[in-house]
Amino acid sequence: MSPAKKAPPKKTTRKRTATRPAAPTRRADSAQAQVTRLLSMLPYLRSHPSAKVSEVAALFGVSERQVIRDLQVLWFSGLPGLQMGDYIEVDMEAVEGEGIISVSNADYLARPLRLRTDEAVALIVALRTLASVPGSFERGAVERAITKLENAAGEVAEQAAAVQVQVDGDAVADVAATVRSALDAKNRLHLSYWVPARDEATERDVDPMRLVVVDGRLYLEGWCHRAESVRLFRLDRVLDVKELDVPAQVPSQAQPRDLDGGLFQPSPDDELVTFDLAPAGRWVADYYPYESAEERPGGELRLRLRVRDRAWVRRLALRLCGTGRVVEPADLAAEVTAAAREALSAYGER
C-alpha cells in the first residue's frame, strides 16, 4: 500500500473586498513614485477614516485602480520585530457602490513627514518656480503653501531666496495659457511647431496630457497624431497654437515620460557615437548621459554615448570646434568633417 498523502496546510487570510480587481503595476509608475505617494497617502487616510477610493484617487491624481494597487503594497507591512497582528491592515469594502478604505496599525507611519534643511529649501524653490510658470493654475494655493513653508522654515527660507531658477516667461505666456485652457477643457490642440533638427515648421494635432518644467523650460507633453506617439514640445518653439473644439482622446497606452533622469534618456537601440574630447570639451560628460568614459593622455576624455539624431551630433561637434571630434562611426565622422568645411567655406576659409 502506498502511504497516505497529507492534506496541505490551511492558509489563513484576512478577508478584504475591493471595488474591482487590481491590475499589475504599470511600468510608467516607478517604485520610487509609489513609495512617495504612499508616505503622503497614509497620513491622509489615518486622518480621514472611511475615505472613498474615488476621492483618494482624485486627490492624488491617479486612477482608482492605482490607489488599490498602492494599498495592496501595505498589506502585512510593518517595522522589524513586529508580530502578525501588529502589521498594517488595509480593508476595502463596497458600500452603496463606493469603495471605502480603512487603515489600522499604521500610527508609526501616519505622522507627517519632517523635512530636512535641504529638502525644505528644495521644496520652497520648486514652489516658487511653479508659481512663476505662465498659465499655471491654482496659483493662490501655491502661494499659500510657500507662505506656510517659509514661516515654518524660518531662517532656512533665506537660503531658498538665494537660489534663482529662470523659467520661460512672457515669450511663451500666451502659448502656455492656451495649453492650460485645453488641458482644463480636455480639448485637442493644433500646433505649428519648429523642429530645429530639420530647420522646418511642422503642423500637427496634439491631445495634451500635461504642462511640465524641465531645466527651466516649459514643455507640453501630449499624444501627437502625426507621430502616433507621446511627444514633448518646447513652448518657445511653438510658432502658433489653437485650441480646437474637438475632445482630446489620449490612448490608454500613452503614459507620461519619467523625467526624473532628465529630458534626454537614451535607448539601447540608439546609435553609439564616440567622441574624443580635449580638456576644454570635457563639459559634454557633465551635460549628457553616456555609456562609458575613458581617460586618455594629456587630459583628454574618450566618451561613448547613445544618440538617436545624427543632426544633433553634427551640431554638437561643430559647437565643440577644436575641443572635440567624432571618432566613430567613421561615416558620421566624415559627415561632421564635411559640415565643418561647408561652414568654413561660407567665410571664405578652407
SSE order and pairing:
Layout lengths: L30 H17 L3 E2 H8 L3 H11 L14 E7 L2 E7 L2 H4 L6 H15 L7 H15 L2 H6 L8 H16 L1 E9 L4 E15 L2 E8 L4 E6 L3 E10 L23 E7 L6 H4 L4 E5 L3 E8 L2 H11 L3 E5 L1 H16 L5
Antiparallel strand pairs: 1-3, 2-3, 4-5, 4-8, 5-6, 6-7, 9-11, 9-12, 10-11
Structure report:
Helix 2 packs across helix 3. The chain folds into four domains: 31-110, Arc Repressor Mutant, subunit A; 117-161; 170-247, SH3 type barrels (Roll); 271-345. Mean pLDDT is 76; it is low at 1-28. The radius of gyration is 27 Å and the shape is globular. It contains eleven helices and twelve strands. With 350 residues, it is α+β, with helices and mostly antiparallel strands. The strands form three sheets. A five-stranded antiparallel sheet has the order 7-6-5-4-8, with helices on one face. The longest helix has 17 residues, at 31-47.
